[in-house]
Amino acid sequence: MTGALYATPAAVLVGLFFVVPLLLVVWMSLHRWPLLGNPRLNAPDNYTAVVDNALVASAAWFTLRYTVLITALLFVIAFGLALLVQNRRPGVGFFRTAFFLPMTVGFASASLLFLGLLSEEIGPLPAGGDSPALGSAVLLVLWRFAGFNMLILLTGLQAIPLDVYEAARIDGASRWQVFGRITVPLMRPTIALVLTMMITGSLLAFDQFWILTRGGPDNSTTSLVMVIYREAFVRLDLGSAAGISVVLLVLLAVVSSVQFAVLRRRSA
Amino acid sequence: MKAKLAAVALLLATAACGADEPGAADDGATLTLWTRAATEAVSKAYADAYNASHRNKVEVTAYPNEEYPAKLASAAGARSLPDLFAADVVFAPQYASQGLWADVTDQFQSLPFKDSVAPSHVRAGTWEGRTHAVPHTIDLSVMLYNKDLYAKAGLDPEKPPRTLAEFAEHARKIDQLGGDVHGTYFGGNCGGCVEFTFWPSVWAAGGEVLDAEGRTALVDSPEMAEVFAVYRDLYDQGVASPASKAEAGPTWLGALQSGKVGIAPAPSVWLDAIEAKGVKTGLAPIPGLTGGESTFVGGDAIGIGATSGKAQQAWDFLAWTMSDEAQVEVIAQRKGVPVRTDLAANRHSSADPRLVTANGLVAKGKTPYARNFNATFNDPQGPWLTTVRGALFGNAGQALATGNEAITKSLRQG
């Protein structure tokens, strides 16, 4: 009984801010839902429309490519940074702070910062033409999030007992052997966490493309969330937006569960 | 006889009540008005003049242009729309059809000057025969040209082009001045910019872009193909600034203010902003390929928020904004285009022949009407921008044919 009471605040918060909105989205996705006036049941129209929507297909393909690209680059860079500042030595605090600092800038502000930086009109680093659209967004995300992911990986690194490393050294293990046989296996839970966050964040990418490229040129950087935004706020069709959201949610749940299953099985 | 007398008495009583109404509608209420940044200055000028002579107080809040439609949509969803809100006139049919604006048909019909209120704007605010919005500001697309560059290139600064072919010829001559001077400039990555500046040339040639109901696209017409071909050639030959390809709107005005562009179609309201940078600017109607002239009658429409509890007071403000007083002393005084065709010539416009030219275009121009206009034409993810990019920088013939199909589909989407 006491246990249930202790859990109540968290349960209420989760219910209010997660379960209720989730059910509402599912409910909306079954209706024609105007901004004003009464909703009308139209299931499964909002779902069949997802299949017909050519923009959804191209946005899904782009979002997947972007997710693979960002996850690979961000993981390598963040892990590299974490290894660089892993050990206590003079000046390491400065570098840890420097790498983490971009995280303190709001993401929308950071996007606007890059927009100004790369502007052909006012920017100190003008990016001409339209080829650098994706590149600039990738650069922005790497700059903004590498430090944060470094920090999480760093805590994982520091949780590995030093005795294990010492034992390996005594046994004559090389640097690569230490990395491959000790660091990576013992880091698996942390790596799972970081990868899940990266993949989820990338599949839900919106701000950077909305601000930097508006999805252009020629819809080449239109992400799935931008399509949801278009359905809700341009076409004013909330039911259709809810439909795509539910599909994306299911996709995210599947990806995350597969990922966890793979990473947990190996570490067990 | 008695019945007749009673009827007359009743009529008189009603009339008396009617006479009282302005007083009742001007009861010191505070009215919130939302507008987009582009229109902020005009909305505030209206509000200041109204507040100075009325007991009601109008408070204007402006939002960034791109974020404004989303702001309205979320306010509508939360049933907390402001008492009054303005919107890009091409969005008006969608907002009217969604019921975001209150029905003002009866009030509008009672205005003595209702027939001279910019007809294409009034039509844009009409859904299923009911009026939901009235014109707030008018912005026309015109040719703006740099008089100094005209003189330097050996062209007569008082003789703007009369055909689109002549426009291209002038642009080429100015481009030959070399250096960082370019013949022309356009928003090649901005659906709204292209429809605003290219469609008048199609209309001037007698063509159409949409059917009257806004449910069928006609962009695969020969007129449209010819207009795109003119701009495409100018870009290919480097006469149009290379920045035209990526121009999505935000830096368009800046490019013209630089004084490095010969002649370009642009919003008439930029005339002052460009001259303020010391660029001597001429204004001419947008011509068709071989003559004729037209304009895109843009600007903002305004209506009463459907969830407002102060509809009567809000209408008092709207009716006043369309009055002679507001149109001449607020709009014409700041070199704007009056929303009433009977006030095209007024004591302010007669001082500047360029304004007479602009005001005279309102009757010749069009405001396209479609419920799904924004999603189809202005939104960067809409099918129009894809069509534009293909027609200007890709396979033109194919882009217009497949674009026409995609645009029609988008226009009809439920």
Description:
The complex is a heterodimer of chains A (268) and B (414). By secondary structure, chain A is mainly α. Chain A is built from eleven helices and two strands, in the order αββαααααααααα. Chain A has helices at 2-29, 45-52, 54-84, 92-100, 107-118, 133-158, 162-170, 175-203, 207-212, 224-234, 238-267; strands at residues 31-32, 40-41. In chain A, strand 1 (31-32) and strand 2 (40-41) form a beta hairpin. In chain A, helix 4 (92-100) packs across helix 6 (133-158). The model of chain A has no long low-confidence stretch (mean pLDDT 89). Chain B has 18 helices and eleven strands. Chain B has helices at residues 2-25, 40-53, 68-77, 92-97, 105-109, 119-124, 147-152, 164-175, 191-204, 222-236, 252-257, 270-275, 311-321, 324-331, 353-361, 373-378, 383-393, 396-412; strands at residues 30-36, 57-63, 84-88, 126-127, 130-131, 134-146, 263-267, 281-284, 286-288, 291-294, 297-304. Chain B has two domains: 30-139 and 298-361, D-Maltodextrin-Binding Protein, domain 2; 140-297 and 373-412, D-Maltodextrin-Binding Protein, domain 2. The relative contact order of chain B is 0.17. With 414 residues, chain B is an alpha+beta fold. Chain A binds chain B through residues 32, 34-37, 55, 119-121, 128-130, 214-219, 222, 226-227, 229-230, 232-238, and chain B through 69-70, 73-74, 76-77, 79, 94, 98-100, 189, 242-243, 245-246, 248, 251, 254, 306-307, 372, 374-375, 379-382, 385-386, 389, 413-414.
What is the gist of this entry?
The complex is a heterodimer of chains A (268) and B (414). With 268 residues, chain A is an all-alpha fold.
Main features:
heterodimer, A: 268 residues, mainly alpha, 11 helices, B: 414 residues, alpha+beta, D-Maltodextrin-Binding Protein, domain 2, seven-stranded mixed beta sheet, 18 helices
